[in-house]
Amino acid sequence: MNKRWLLPIIFLGILLLLIIPARFLWSEDESFEAPNEKKPVGQDINLTSISKDKAKYHPESTVNFEATLSKKPNHAMDVKIVYYHLDEPVHEKIIQVTDQTFTWTWQTPKADYRGYYVEVVPLHNTSGGKTIALDVSSSWETFPRYGFLSDFSDMEDSKQQEVINNLTRYHINGLQFYDWHDEHQQPLKMNEDGEPKQSWSNIANQPVSFQTVEEYINLAHENNMAAMSYNLLNGTLAKEKEDGEKEEWYLYKDEEQEELATHELPDSWKGDITLTNPGNQAWQDYIFSKQQTVFDSLNFDGWHIDQLGDRGDVYNAEGEKVNLLDSYKSFLTAAQEKFPDKTLVMNAVNQFGQEQIADSSATPFLYSELWDPITTYADLNDVLIENHRLSNYEKNQVLAAYLNYKKSNKEGSFNPASVLYTDALIFAQGGAHLELGEHMLSQEYFPHDNLTIPENLKKDLTKYYDFMVAYENLLRDDVQPAELNITTSQWVQLSDKPARGELYTFAKKKEDKKIIHILNYFNTDHMNWRDTNGTQTEPAMKQELSLSIAESKKVKNVWIASPDWNNGLPSQLKFTQEDGHVELTLPKIQYWDMIVMEY
């Protein structure tokens, strides 16, 4: 080779080595587009929405994203996409966009049970970006985000798709099919030819279509959501003894068996509920056979098992007192043996039976429906803490907690402050809130739908659910309580429990991290989480609060995130540490901030 070409060839080789990694920085199947060198697009184009195609994703699967701009760009516009796990960017790319709506894909990593934030921002307008979260989990049971369905009448496919698409945006990964069944003792009745009936009335005499139920199950599965069949563990309609149940299965209010234990329902419904003994093996065999008929005919993923709470003293057909709490565990054990491949979730009404449910290997997470006297934020906080303790911090939890209860007796809209105060507390303590379905829940009868969700609350709820998913590994993933000694000399008192006029602070720990939560009750109207009349006031955004945190370990890094600002993304915090204290400044707080100290 001529020596005069040697240096140019070497130079060209070095240049290629520098260019190729830049063009294929993150993945062999993703190309890097150089930033647009044309004239500026303008500062008035921003992101208006981002969506994805599933509620959760398996590891090493494809995520299909779609985003919309405020208007169509005049020419190619550069958009930066950054994927975060906690505070670390794990993937980044720049794409060129020519249409108002654009799409792209991402291959999820191998790691299972991880949450991510995705930031999408125009390079010419860095304040015009948006974020969305995604959950990479092979099962919904680890990080349950429970929603509901309550209308199964004949309906257009497009309406069902719209409902599921909306719940997908909130990352709802499990659906409770509320009162879809015919009657408790025979949830799915069959025709004379042995095929399921194609239509019936549920216990409230509302129309149900087999096709609608089946299509909702299919749509749920297409979006990686679990479909849960709702039914009581120990109820029959009082008039339906011809369905095969036996009187010796019933519960009584007295030793002499003169008064049946019943649960009254409205006169317009099919009838009142007669309670059976859930610990009676013959009853278990009977209701399991009926549930098996359901599973044989409809592709439900599990059974949402309901109860009716503390019934006081009850007796069996022999006049013996029945311990309902022990019978719950017996029922769950038998159900797990009968349906080993199905998910079982059981409602602890006002925590009744939660200890037995938590101790059962049949239930992957806990579910509580809350009533008085659990009325204040402090009471709600105690329930969340108790559920963690009862399961030895091994099971996550979902709370059915109904807001603006009396306000919903008339048409109107939810009070955003009610929802965000309650969700902030539930999410910060590692729980989820059963509240979203075709509408938002306000009462225990799920079809009740008098209150709408105002547009500003829809936007904030999206941010809160994104936050819960993106940081699930710090909120709900094997975190333990941690000691916290935190003080301030500024505008507010700090408290170790929710208290009006103060900031509630508590800490959790995981591996090399301490997670500090700060919840703002500085200017609340009251401290009742249900806010039954919808009078709660929105907290003002407060700026700059100096904090001193006792910490003997050497702190390497501190960052902060909030669903209320910066699109939920992490921000580094400056800090100093000396004499066993970390000094830092909280930049702002509205409802909820989360500070993470790393050692």
Provide mean pLDDT, rounded: 92
Low-confidence runs (pLDDT<50, min 5 residues)?
16-38
* Coarse shape: globular
**Roughly how many Å is the radius of gyration?**
27 Å
Number of strands: 33
* Strand content bin: 25-35%
What would the keywords be for this entry?
599 residues, alpha/beta, 8-stranded parallel sheet, 7-stranded mixed sheet, 33 strands, 22% helix, globular
Describe the fold and architecture.
The chain is of the alpha/beta class and 599 residues long. The chain is 22% helix and 29% strand. The protein has an eight-stranded parallel beta sheet. Strands 23, 25, 26, 27, 29, 30 and 33 form a seven-stranded mixed beta sheet that branches. Strands 4-3-6-7 form a four-stranded antiparallel beta sheet. Strand 18, helix 7 and strand 19 (397-400) form a beta-alpha-beta unit. Helix 2 (157-169) runs parallel beside helix 3 and helix 8 runs parallel beside helix 9 (455-470). The chain is globular. It starts with 5 loop residues before the first helix and ends with a strand. 42% of the residues are buried. Residues 16-38 have low confidence and may be disordered.
Quick structural overview:
This protein is an alpha/beta fold and 599 residues long. The protein is built from 10 helices and 33 strands.
How is this fold's topology laid out?
Layout: H1 6-23, E1 47-52, E2 62-69, E3 77-85, E4 88-97, E5 101-107, E6 114-122, E7 130-136, E8 146-149, H2 157-169, E9 174-177, E10 199-201, E11 207-209, H3 210-222, E12 226-232, E13 235-237, E14 262-263, E15 273-275, H4 281-297, E16 302-306, H5 324-338, E17 343-349, H6 354-359, E18 366-369, H7 377-390, E19 397-400, E20 412-413, H8 416-428, E21 431-433, E22 451-452, H9 455-470, H10 472-475, E23 480-482, E24 486-487, E25 493-495, E26 502-510, E27 513-520, E28 542-550, E29 557-561, E30 571-572, E31 575-578, E32 581-589, E33 592-598
Parallel strand pairs: 8-9, 9-12, 12-16, 16-17, 17-18, 18-19, 19-21, 20-22, 25-26
Antiparallel strand pairs: 1-2, 2-5, 3-4, 3-6, 6-7, 10-11, 13-15, 14-15, 23-26, 24-28, 26-27, 27-33, 28-32, 29-30, 29-33, 31-32
Helix pairs in contact: 2-3, 8-9
